[in-house]
Amino acid sequence: MNRELLSFVIPCYRSEKTIAAVTAELIGEIEKRADAYDYEIFLVNDHSPDNVLEVIRRLCAENPKIHGISFARNFGQHAALMAGYARCKGSIIISLDDDGQAPVESIYALVDKIHEGYDVVFGRYPDVKQSGFRKFGSRINRLMSETLLEQPKEISGNSFYAMRDFIARDMVRYRNPYPYLGGLIFRATRNAANVDVNQRERLVGKSGYSLRKLFALWMNGYTAFSVKPLRLASLLGVVSAAIGFIMVIVTVLHKLINPSVQIGYSSLMAVILFVGGLIMLMLGLIGEYIGRIYICLNSSPQYVIRELINIKRDESE
Predict the structure, then answer these.
(1) Which of 132, 187, 243, 248 has its CA 20 to 30 A from that of 207?
(2) CA-to-CA distance for 155 and 148, rounded, in angstroms?
(3) Over 90: is that where the pLDDT of 57 sits?
């Protein structure tokens, strides 16, 4: 009987104390259906400052089904996942984090949902264990994803998800240095679903995503996969011009009706500062798009691989 191959991709950063336990538990869960499924696991070291690479080397030496990828510098979680996807051979690819929060006991819930006919299935946490600030940020992120990336409103995105291999093949065709997986997934398919799963506590430490990194990630997604921010800039320009025109008319009428009315210097400066700030904001947004185009034309790499473990290096690498 031919077993279906499942590919797992785990980006690793500051996880020397957790990745071995996460991998061991994952293998134990996979083997509960060993008669129907085989597996391969890709551990991608995103230039972590701890000793996670040594742990990955040890795990690869112990199990030939575990493969290691190590970056030359830090390229980010999404680039790490892309490097893993480029080497997956399974018919279904599952992504999860290295901190132990993803409930590995639910991997077959995702796989079974895929077999119902969906292209992508995200784990959904009904009770999200986040701070109030992070919850607010997640809501803003979801609203922007629905508006700019056309993510289906009924779908809740997550870093714990499964997808069919053709989605991954389409994603890795994107070679620009600003990968954003939500944009790549939903430009390929809208045939997505959710499965409710239980979020665990992080085994060790805290999230590596600071406010700065989250903002940079959002900028990646919303400038790389949508021109709606530029259209919004045009709309704001039209609205500002209309407001300015109306204010001019109102000021002239006031002066004609009551010549003693003084045109206020403070109000004039406020309008100038508002319009000037709006113009600078829009110029900055346009500059962000132009800068990214320039970087892409310079063939900046999405990632650079320093070392492959249990993987044969392609001639193109």
Answers:
(1) 187
(2) 15
(3) yes
With bands split at pLDDT 50, 70 and 90, how would you rate the model's confidence at 274?
Answer: confident
CATH architecture of the domain with residue range 4-206+302-309? Alpha-Beta Complex (3.90)
* pLDDT at residue 267, rounded to an integer: 65
Backbone φ and ψ for 58, nearest 5 degrees, come out as -65, -45
* Residues whose CB falls within 8 Å of the CB of residue 230, separated by 6 or more in sequence, listed in order: 285, 286, 289
Tell me the percentage of the chain whose pLDDT exceeds 70.
80
CA distance 166 to 171: 9
Q: At CB < 8 A and 24+ separation, what contacts does 116-120 make?
A: 116/193, 117/191, 118/191, 118/192, 118/193, 119/163, 119/164, 119/166, 119/167, 119/188, 119/189, 119/191, 119/192, 120/161, 120/162, 120/163, 120/164, 120/167, 120/185, 120/189, 120/191, 120/192, 120/193
The Cα–Cα gap between 229 and 220 comes to 12
Q: Are 45 and 52 in contact (CB under 8 A)?
A: yes
Beta bridge partners of 5: 38
User: Going by C-beta distance under 8 Å and a sequence separation of 6 or more, which residues neighbour residue 97?
Assistant: 10, 11, 159, 160
pTM (two decimals): 0.78
- b/e 173-183 (16+ beta carbons within 10 angstroms → b): ebebbbbbbbb
Question: Strand order in 37-45's β-sheet?
Answer: 192-196, 120-124, 161-164, 92-95, 4-12, 37-45, 66-71, 305-309
Query: pLDDT tens digits, residue range 81-124?
Result: 999 999 999 999 999 999 998 999 999 999 999 999 999 999 99
Residues 6+ apart with CB under 8 A from 119: 163, 164, 166, 167, 188, 189, 191, 192
Residue 67 tokens, joined = 């493969």
CA 310 to chain centre: 27
In angstroms, the CA 162 to CA 9 distance is 10
User: Would you kindly state where each structural domain of the chain is located, as residue ranges?
Assistant: 4-206+302-309, 228-297
In the chain the first and final C-alpha atoms are separated, in Å, by: 35
